[in-house]
Amino acid sequence: MNLPLVEHRYGERVTILDHPWISSALARIGQKETSHAELMSLVRSAYTGLAQLAFAMHLPTVQQRVATRMAEQHGEQGYWVGRGLDPSASIVVLDVIRGGIVPAQVCFELLTAVLPVDNLRLDHVNMARVAGPDGHVSGVDLSGSKIGGRLDGATLIVPDPMGATGSTLVRALEYLAEHHGTPAKVVALPLISTPEFLRATLPAHPNLHVVAGRLDRGMSPPEVLASVPGSSWEREKGLDEHDYIVPGAGGVGEVLNNSWC
To answer: What does the CA dihedral 245, 251, 255, 257 come to, rounded to 10 degrees?
Structure first.
C-alpha cells in the first residue's frame, strides 16, 4: 500500500503517517487558541482519516461481488467485483475513557457504515492514570468498565488519542486477557505517539500494531532528533517530567471533555 509514511527503525509493527492533512489537523488540535468546537471537529476528522488507513492495512478482507443499481439494466456488467472488508470478521472497538470516547465512537460508526453490526462491538474501559508523589505515572486505575463479551479471535481497535507512557494500553490488555480473553490482533491508533509508548506497548501483545498520526520525541537530544526515528531508540524521549507529550497537544482528554479533574 502506497501511503505517506515516516521512515523509522521501530520495526514492522509500527506505522507513522506523514499525511499533510492529518499533520495540519494535529497542529491545530495542539494550539491553545483552538476553540472546543473546532477541536471536536478536528479530532473527528483526523480519526476518520487515520482509521480508514489503519482499517485498510489491518482488518481482514475478502473478494466481493455486489449488485449495483445498474445490474437491472446491464446484468452481470452491473456487478461490482473487488476486495473489501470481511463482513464475517469479529471486530471490537475499545473506548478508553475519557480521551478515547470521541475517537472510539468515530471508529465504530465508520465500521457500522460498511459492515454488519452483528460482528461489531463498542466496549468501554474506565481507566485513569495514577500519579505518584513525584508526579510521575505509577499505575492505572480500572473501575466501571463495560465489556460486552469475549475477545478471543477478534481484532481489537484502540483509538486512544495520546500515546504517551503506554501504561494505559498495557494495563487494558492485561485486564482484558484476564477477564475476557485475548484478541487475535490489536491495532492501537494514537493521534500522537512517543518512543516511550512504542517501547512499552509492542511487547504487550505479539500481534499488536501501532498506526500513529504523528511521532513526537521533542525531549530528545539534538543529535538524536537529527537521526532517523528509532535508530537511537534508547536515547529518544517524548515525555516531560509529568509524562505529557512534547510537543504534543496537552491534556487532550481534559480538553475534549472540558473537565480538568
So the answer is: 120
Give one DSSP letter per residue of 118-129, joined into a string.
GGEEEEEEEEEE
Q: Is 69 exposed, middle or buried (0-12, 13-18, 19+ CB in 10 A)?
A: exposed
> What pLDDT band is residue 129 in, cutting at 50, 70 and 90?
low
Whole-model pTM over 0.90 = yes
With CA atoms as reference, report the closest residue to 51 among 113, 7, 128. 113
β strands within 23-149, DSSP E? 61-67, 79-85, 91-97, 120-131, 137-142
In whole angstroms, give the CA distance from residue 10 to residue 29: 26
Question: What CA–CA distance (Å, rounded) separates 248 from 240?
Answer: 10
Contact by Cβ (8 Å): 187, 211: yes
Which run of H or E residues covers position 167? helix 167-180
For 99-119, write each residue's pLDDT tens digit: 899 999 999 999 999 999 999
Q: What is the DSSP letter of 130?
A: E
Choices 3.40.50.2020, 3.40.630.30, 1.10.3210.10, 3.20.20.70: CATH for 14-59+86-257: 3.40.50.2020
